[in-house]
Amino acid sequence: MTAALAPAKPRKFPTQKWSNWYLTALKLAVGLLLVLLILLLWLLRQNEAEEQRSTLIADVLWLEQILSFRLDGNAEQLKQLALVLSQEKNRNALFRVHTQHLIKNSPELQQILWLDSSAHLLDSMPTQNLPRLGSGGPGDDEKADTKALTKPETRADTPADMQSRAIELASKLGKPVYTDVYQSSGSPQFEVFFPLFENGHFHGSLVGVYSLNTLLKQLVPWWFTEKYQVRILDANGNTLASKSRVSEATTTLSYAVPFDPPGFGMAIQVTAYRSSGNIAQTLITSLIIALAAAVLVSLWVMRGHIQRRLVAEQALRSEYAFRKAMEDSLTVGMRARDLEGRVTYTNPAFCQMVGFSAEELIGARPPMPYWAPEELENTQAIHQAVIEGKAPREGFEIRLMRKDGSRFDALIYEAPLIDADGQHTGWMASIVDVTARKQVEEMARQQQEKLQLTSRLITMGEMASALAHELNQPLAAITSYNTGCLNKLESGDFNSRELKDALGKLGVQAQRAGSIIRRVHDFVRKSEPKLAPCDLAEVIDDSIGFIDAVARSLNVRIVRVIQGMRPELMADGVMIEQVLLNLMRNGIEAMSDTAPENRCLTIKLSQIDKHMQISVADRGPGIPPEVQEKLFTPFFSTKAEGMGIGLNICRSIIEFHHGRLWVEDNPEGGSIFVITLPITRP
């Protein structure tokens, strides 16, 4: 059973249509926010890319200037050396001094050569011969070198061709000339030729041999390679030399400028690495997009949740209206109290029952205004038992008072009040006004007593002749003994002993007659049921004493079987005797068509577990199953002159004693009526 506090006014909830518009606006706002965030991040990425490109171009131009400045510086020093060699006389010494200094300060210069006008090697620094363009390698004589320089291979792009063209071009132009890059021992190199003139005539060349790898190694600083990958490309885009922190760059952001000198289509290309800042920015961007997507998903989920909630609220309102209508239509009063006993809810039926309004009852504390003053102590004790959780589950009756002062009887069932979290918050009572019912029950009880009395009178009426015969025997004996005593007294021939014996027998017969009259009087008089210790064997004997004369007149033999112990139980002996008389009389009448030698009525008393069992077995024709089902129904009888109340009264008496009465077939023929009564030990 569930209940709530005093009903409050129902709240107004948003409609489904308004909720859909509201959720749609929220989704549009979040979607627009997501688009703006993506646009902003894209603009930031573009600005950052543009800034990075500008920085890259500036750094590439700076590097190109550094390389050009170094090459120009070296060229200037070689030019000065060429002038010195054209004018001074101690040329060999000056060549070595100047070239040692130049190579020391410019490690990218692998070797400086001094050639005459026929391209014969005059001197070099370092003195060991490096692999030369078109040369046969170190150790070859000057003739071989001259031959290699003056007689190039037939291919136009051979190293010898490049050297010959450079010497010829330098002698004609009178200025330095660079060669294209060539591979020497797996290392990319190029040369610069400076013409030597004396008195206006060409008489030799000064050659500087550069290594591209060493050039990049010496002139590209370490911090530059932390940011970029530097490569020198030929005219076909092939990499001639490179310097980088890793083998490959991870972005396509690059910039190239011509590498001139030396020229020949060579270029310096710088490619930017993907910086950690870019990764962080990408991660932040991804997180923002994921967060926005999560917001959209959450809104979608919330939409479903709100829709389900609206449906649940609508169902709750419908359920509340249904329960309210149901509670208002109940004739059973409902009252809720908290753990302190304060009234928290009443339904209209209870208010009408006690005459107080809900406003007068809500919040009331004990003693309640509907408690009867004369029952205050008992009511307070019951209230405390309920608060302590000791209320009987089968309910309890109590007398209450209406507002006008009238009293009424109420049957109350108390149950724990559990909230949605499973917590015990109070007690819910169902209250039924049983005043009318008790009046009906009292009238029914009185009618039942009248029926029982009527049944007993009918039984006595039917047994009147037998009882008269029973009384005639002791009365006749009394008359005989009295006459004999008078005769003895008149004759004078007597002794006191004879008179004493006769008078004693006369008293016994008088007591016998008085016992018969007492039993009849106790059986037929109207009285309230009295539960007292009762010996069922004595009740059976008294019943047999009543019915024995009738049984003898119909040639019925009564067999009495008492088994085992005979514990006393709490019962009304007269009522049990009435039941036994009714059952035995029915059994005797059922054997009217049975052969006289088979007319036997067996009364058996036994103990089964915690019950005493009495069985009344006859040897009549038995009772059909369809009749057994209706046998204990009021006003149902198998006798033409029967009223149909005897067996119904018998069952009512046994049920009053918390026992059972039923019928079953007798295996030897006939029927057995079985009674079980619970044993009440002292």
UniProtKB/TrEMBL annotation:
SUPFAM superfamilies: ATPase domain of HSP90 chaperone/DNA topoisomerase II/histidine kinase, Homodimeric domain of signal transducing histidine kinase, PYP-like sensor domain (PAS domain). Residues 318-390 form the PAS domain. It catalyses: ATP + protein L-histidine = ADP + protein N-phospho-L-histidine. CDD domains: HisKA (cd00082), PAS (cd00130). SMART domains: HATPase_c, HisKA, PAC, PAS. Gene3D superfamilies: 1.10.287.130, Histidine kinase-like ATPase, C-terminal domain (3.30.565.10), PAS domain (3.30.450.20). InterPro entries: HATPase_C_sf, HATPase_dom, His_kinase_dom, HisK_dim/P_dom, HisK_dim/P_sf, PAC, PAS, PAS-assoc_C. Residues 127-162 are annotated as: Disordered. This is histidine kinase. Residues 394-446 form the PAC domain. Pfam families: HATPase_c, HisKA, PAS. One of its GO terms (biological process) is regulation of DNA-templated transcription. The keyword ATP-binding applies. Its EC number is 2.7.13.3. The chain crosses the membrane at residues 21-44, 283-302. Residues 140-158 have a biased composition (Basic and acidic residues). Keywords: ATP-binding, Kinase, Membrane, Nucleotide-binding, Phosphoprotein, Transferase, Transmembrane, Transmembrane helix, Two-component regulatory system. The keyword Protein transport does not apply. Residues 466-681 form the Histidine kinase domain. One of its GO terms (molecular function) is phosphorelay sensor kinase activity.
